[in-house]
Amino acid sequence: MSDSALSHTRLLGSLFGLLQVASLLSLLLLLFKALQFYLQRQWLLKAFQQFPSPPSHWFFGHKVKNDQELQEILSRVEKFPSACPLWLWGSKARLVVYDPDYMKVILGRSDPKAHGTYKFVAPWIGYGLLLLNGQTWFQHRRMLTPAFHYDILKPYVGIMVDSIQVMLDQWEKLSIQDNSLEIFEHISLMTLDTIMKCAFGQQECIQVNRKSKAYIQAIRDLNNLVFARMRNVFHQNDVIYSLTSNGRTYHHACQLAHEHTDKVINQRKAQLQDEGELEKVKMKRRLDFLDILLFAKMEDGSSLSDKDLRAEVDTFMFEGHDTTASGISWILYTLATHPEHQQKCREEVQSLLGNGASVTWEILDKMAYTTMCVKEALRLYTPVPLVSRELSKPVTFPDGRSLPKGVIVTLSFYSLHHNPKVWPNPEVFDPFRFAPDSSRHSHSFLPFSGGSRNCIGKQFAMNEMKVAVALTLLRFELLPDPTRVPILIPRLVLKSKNGIHLRLRKLS
After folding, report:
1. Do 126 and 315 contact (CB within 8 A), yes or no?
2. Which residues bind heme (predicted)?
3. What is the CA radius of gyration of the chain?
4. Which helix (H) or strand (E) holds 368?
5. What 3-state DSSP class applies to 20?
6. Which of 54, 69, 194, 225 is within CB 3.0–4.6 Å of 163 for a Cys-Cys bond?
7. How far apart are CA 327 and CA 68, in angstroms?
8. Burial class (CB in 10 A: 0-12, 13-18, 19+), 301
């Protein structure tokens, strides 16, 4: 045999040997993954044995039709007391909780956010106050709390008024056409405008800025993409996800969001290079949100890193406008579908502001009936439908049932607020549930979560919701569009698949 033929034979033999080794390694890896899948599933089955649930497929889990997640969970609330397992797929499940006693137990602990769930949000908003855990979270929370002191929040009411009036002026022009209006996008731009001015010191009105609309669209895309990825077994791996069309869209939307926040940070840093501006900031009795971040010192004396700074800005930019926009949109929709309560709120607001008085912090406290309606709307349409925790140690609930360390618990605030054992006739809009003399469980109403990790901006959000309702009712009668009834979908915040459409009738 010639040398070339011999070399060729050896090469083929070597390649065949490599293929055999690769096949063996692949088979071993497959067996390892199968064993891992089996053991994890058996562990979860044992962990959930005290909590019955509907039958599920061994691999595909509980089959839920697209955009039927909320209806599916509510169908279980009456059948399975307090909590029920939800299987996403074979070895991925969590216990969904909708009982106030269970809520109180979990929110009274310091379990971390469920990494397997929230890791998909991290490339977008980073590890800021929403995603941090442990001592680092505590340091950031303590550092940012002064930004929400009532002395800071009081003058923000005037800024909210100005932003809302710009939106209502636009609505007035659009209402002449006598068509229904999709309000969520308008309200999102308005709440973004407000947060930019209040928390980040921006001066310009951004409600007519096309770049701001691009940011709003990016946030909408990210909401949808994160939720879809959480529920897709084939999109869990970062490398695989990055190769998909959804992965590429997610990366582009993250870039748009980061460009927006980077611009805000860099503008503020540039302003602080000016000695006059720096002196003005130092003379403030209390610093606003971005100033606190830029001047912050951690316990070791170091400043926030650029990565930490951007994470907090990205987090608050999203949390400060999108959740509030969801709340305001659903409140206005609820009032449109309950005209008698809308009129009572309008009469209350007219009695307080009818003589041309300005909306102030003090007047917001006097809007008793309107506040009751706002809270009842937040119960029906909870802006943040759920949060998840990963148990850092075993837990035993008041009824004696228990879970081991490592289980993911989802706190379904939406289901809690629609639980008939907690709220009789839960689908009925009844603001008197929140009358001053009413009594209820301390953890039966959690639109801003609860415990030490409750929403740091809840007072800011409540103020903006009440200002928006008051000023809108002074100018418009709100009517629903019966041809476009909202289809609720749970995302990071509660949205409608087909938008939220209202007809606006200008008041004389």
Report:
1. yes
2. 455
3. 26
4. helix 368-380
5. helix
6. 194
7. 21
8. exposed
Q: What is the 3-state secondary structure (H, E, C) of 136-197?
A: HHHHHHHHHHHHHCHHHHHHHHHHHHHHHHHHHHHHHHHHCCCCCEEHHHHHHHHHHHHHHH
* Domain 101-398+425-506, architecture per CATH: Orthogonal Bundle (1.10)
Q: What is the pLDDT of residue 270?
A: 84
- Report residue 347 as tokens: 């009469």
Pick from 112, 461, 138: nearest CA to 316: 461
Tell me the three state secondary structure of residue 386: strand
How is residue 315 written in tokens?
A: 């987090």
Q: What span, in angstroms and rounded, lies between the C-alpha atoms of 464 and 470?
A: 10
β-strand partners of 61: 57
CA torsion, points 254, 258, 260, 261, in degrees to nearest 10? Answer: 140
What integer pLDDT is reported at residue 267 of this predicted model?
A: 87
Domain boundaries, the chain: 101-398+425-506
What is the structure's pLDDT at 282? Answer: 65
Picking from 330, 318, 361, 360, the residue whose alpha carbon sits closest to that of residue 455 is 318
Please answer whether residues 205 and 193 qualify as being in contact, where contact means their C-beta atoms are separated by less than 8 angstroms.
yes
491 closest CA partner among 193, 219, 183:
219
Q: Is the dihedral of CA 51, 55, 59, 64 positive or negative?
A: negative
- Measured CA to CA, the distance from residue 450 to residue 321 in angstroms comes to 20
Residue 151 one-letter amino acid: D
* H-type alpha helices, 177-296: 183-200, 210-230, 238-242, 245-272, 275-283, 289-295
Distance (Å, whole) CA 409 – CA 129: 20
pLDDT (0 to 100) of residue 297: 67
Question: How confident is the model at residue 177, as a pLDDT?
Answer: 67
| pLDDT for the residue 300 | 63
Q: Is 455 annotated as a binding residue?
A: yes
Coil/strand/helix, residue 133? coil
> What does the pLDDT look like over 169-208, one tens digit per residue?
999 988 776 689 999 999 999 999 999 999 888 888 888 7
C-beta of residue 407 within 8 angstroms of C-beta of residue 95: yes
Distance CA 415, CA 70 (A): 8
Answer whether 411's CB lies under 8 Å from 382's CB: no
Q: Which residues of the chain have pLDDT under 70?
A: 1-8, 10-13, 177-178, 275-278, 281-282, 285-286, 297-302
